[in-house]
Amino acid sequence: MSDAKPTARWREIAHNGLWKQNAGVVQLLGLCPVLAVSTSVINGVSLGLATTLVTALSGASVALLRQFIPNEIRNPVFIMIIAALVTCVDQAMNAWMHGLYAVLGIFIPLITTNCIVMARAEAFASRNTVPEAALDGAMMGLGLTGVLAVLGALRELIGRGTLFSGAELVFGDAGRALVLHLVPAQMNYQYLLALLPPGAFIGLGLMVAGKQWLDARARTRAALQQAAAQLLPEAEGAR
Amino acid sequence: MTRRAATQARVSALTLLAFTFAATLILALSFIATRERIAANENAARAALIAQTLPAGSFDNDLVADTVPLTGTEAAALGLAPGAVAHVARKEGVLVARVFEVETGRGYGGRIRLLVGVTADGRVSGVRVVAHKETPGLGDYIDRAKSNWADQLAGRGMETRWRVKKDGGDIDSVSGATISARAVTGAVGQAVGVADQLAARLKEQK
User: Fold this and answer.
1) Which GO terms fall under molecular function for this chain's record (chain B) (predicted)?
2) Which residues of A47-69 are buried (b: 16+ CB within 10 A; e: fewer)?
């Protein structure tokens, strides 16, 4: 347990998952689904949320059971817990969100092999309390969902000129009203590079670069402020 | 020392066994909870797909349940495994059309699976691509969701030369992406042929 106040600890976990250790653009874990499914916002966010559910549940269960898991067989046990959870999510989606299940297809069962789930079980959940591990899992998953949403929006917008296409798969027929056509539908606009895998690589590369740039800018600002704070008292003293 | 190692191994094995057992139990429960809904979903999705090859309101039976078995040669002509069936559409008990599943390996990106509806008088009522891996934006025009290319196949029967125009047939294709159209055209032609054989065979039996 850390000595910091609980809220500070929770904020740190959230910041870590959403930004500092972001699964998609910093750790670059679980790239296969990120690259394959991010052809539209709806696909990306749906898979992201399914992954979030799994990372949160697996984090909580690993943290809950960690006293009972002998160290030398922890990996097989983690894999079993994760695989069982994924299968439950897979069956639940097949039963209650069949249209979306048909679109995401093989990538739901493949959440099992998503390195981020295993990585958080090993690196975080096996050493922390249940609520912290659940939060960590949820935040890591949401961080990944964010990346999937932005990348999906980017590729959908450039590739097809729409946003939220396929919303009817999640919300039923009412979802059709949500689809935004930024390029009129009858023009049949399509830019293949964005929709095919190379577009995913290029988009993800831009996002990694963008995050680095934002971080670098924040660092420069902090350094400048620090320097100013050091210089100013001296300047005042000299006066 | 060896005894301790053996004890430890036994403890590990038993723990793993316990976890396996618990996981199996959870999976069994989740399977039982979702089984019926999943089966219903799959049936509904399949029925909706089959129904798309027929004019709306042209039938009133359960397309998934009402089937007619195909012979080995008929199934082979459609690219299917032995024991395949055709779905039968009826209105007030009268045969309206039969819907065939066809699979062809001649697509540009691999196998293409289709559903082809053939009316009682041997004409194509509709064609739907169920699964394909054709190039997005190029060969995927065979898919009704992408273009209305497949509409030209409807209404045709045995008299049609089931080849693309480039090969001396009757069917238009998009230049630069002929292979996809060629595969679908050939497969639909096979379905029309099988429908004709099947109709003749069933008439004979009566």
Assistant:
1) electron transfer activity; FMN binding
2) bbbbbbbbbbbbbbbbbebbeeb
